Structure to design on (402 residues):
């Protein structure tokens, strides 16, 4: 995820803190990361785990407390050593705003250090026009900032579109002109971080979902097309222009079929709602996601044509997944979105194609394929996580302290 500046910032903040100032916050960032990933450790445990003297741990805890991130609670006396305190996220401490921008509507929420979306708001776009969407969402973000009693230190955005140059959301296949996501933070003195919806949902899964702790992890989702992300050490691999993970545009399809991206023969054209319509000889749907659900229901009702095309799509999904596993050697593959229902609707077709496509040495012990844990909250959780990643980094803490 790339850092994006939203809104106007004072000159000093725009230049950012100096290197020495950032270095001064590195150990604090490590401690805050430890509190974020495992809240409730005592100050003594944190000092031991981070290799700090007791005095350093006390001083760093005080600095994080001054910024509002943590508070200390008396820890039960363990019988050995001196009394200590538990370091826990402060109630009403700094928060981020998370925004999930979809074709038809949006969700937005606040999230504190635990990354759990709260005060969730949602709505439909009044007009499917990027200018209007950006203006409306900026107002939603401002409302959430005003509602939070503590400071808000960043905005994370997950957008259901290809993200070009890390800020231009392009959903040209659905007739949208590009949306500049930086405008969602317009008027606020807040940094904006953005990823496409599949990228950020993958982040949520690897942090505390179905892929927790796996490295690397591969997240794949079917929405309108196939997206996903490779996660290395819990971090999304987003590419030079923020547009990595466009797995639906791998050439795993019929080379004669045009793709909405402008090329031919892509994986999307074998798997998604538009693919199902083509295989069934039905008109291209206005809402490929809704149409996909409709065909799944028809297959569940034993309509032969629907059952056949769902099987073909599951086969294509399994075959392509094997290619990505061969390339990336993930510990686990997590499916989100319609990929979950597609795999469960034709499990044998998926599994046979998946295993057949794997290199022979992988077939005895293929990486497990599992369902996402966070469901509809994945994008909000991931958007919160990418904003918190920056806010709790040494650079982010130095900015807050400036
Ligand atoms: Zn394509």
């Amino acid at each position: 995820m790339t850092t994006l500046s939203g809104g106007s910032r004072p000159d000093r903040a725009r230049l950012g803190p100096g290197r020495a100032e950032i270095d001064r916050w590195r150990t604090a960032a490590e401690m805050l990361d430890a509190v974020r990933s495992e809240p409730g450790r005592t100050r003594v445990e944190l000092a031991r785990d981070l290799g700090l003297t007791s005095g350093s741990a006390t001083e760093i805890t005080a600095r994080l407390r001054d910024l509002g991130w943590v508070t200390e609670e008396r820890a039960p006396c363990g019988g050995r050593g001196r009394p200590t305190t538990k370091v826990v996220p402060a109630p009403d401490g700094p928060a981020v705003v998370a925004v999930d921008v979809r074709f038809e509507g949006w969700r937005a929420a606040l999230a504190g250090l635990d990354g759990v979306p709260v005060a969730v708001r949602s709505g439909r776009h009044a007009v499917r026009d990027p200018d209007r969407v950006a203006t409306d969402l900026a107002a939603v973000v401002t409302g959430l900032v005003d509602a939070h009693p503590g400071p808000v230190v960043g905005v994370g955005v997950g957008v259901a579109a290809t993200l070009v140059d890390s800020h231009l959301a392009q959903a040209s296949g659905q007739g949208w002109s590009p949306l500049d996501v930086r405008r969602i933070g317009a008027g606020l003195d807040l940094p904006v971080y953005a990823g496409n919806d599949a990228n950020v949902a993958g982040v949520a899964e690897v942090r505390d979902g179905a892929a927790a702790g796996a490295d690397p992890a591969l997240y794949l989702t079917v929405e309108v097309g196939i997206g996903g992300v490779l996660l290395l050490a819990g971090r999304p691999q987003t590419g030079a222009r923020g547009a990595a993970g466009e797995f639906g545009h791998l050439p795993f399809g019929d080379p004669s079929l045009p793709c909405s991206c402008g090329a031919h023969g892509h994986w999307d054209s074998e798997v998604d709602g538009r693919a199902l319509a083509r295989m069934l000889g039905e008109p291209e749907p206005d809402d490929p996601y809704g149409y996909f659900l409709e065909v799944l229901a028809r297959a569940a009702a034993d309509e032969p044509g629907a059952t056949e095309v769902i099987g073909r799509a599951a086969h294509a999904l399994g075959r392509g997944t094997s290619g990505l596993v061969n390339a990336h050697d993930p510990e686990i593959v997590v499916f989100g979105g319609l990929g979950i229902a597609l795999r469960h609707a034709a499990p044998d077709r998926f599994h046979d194609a998946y295993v057949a496509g794997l290199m022979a040495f992988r077939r005895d012990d293929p990486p497990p394929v599992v369902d996402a844990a966070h469901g509809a909250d994945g994008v909000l959780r991931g958007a919160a996580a990418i904003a918190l990643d920056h806010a709790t980094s040494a650079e982010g803490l130095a900015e807050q302290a400036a």
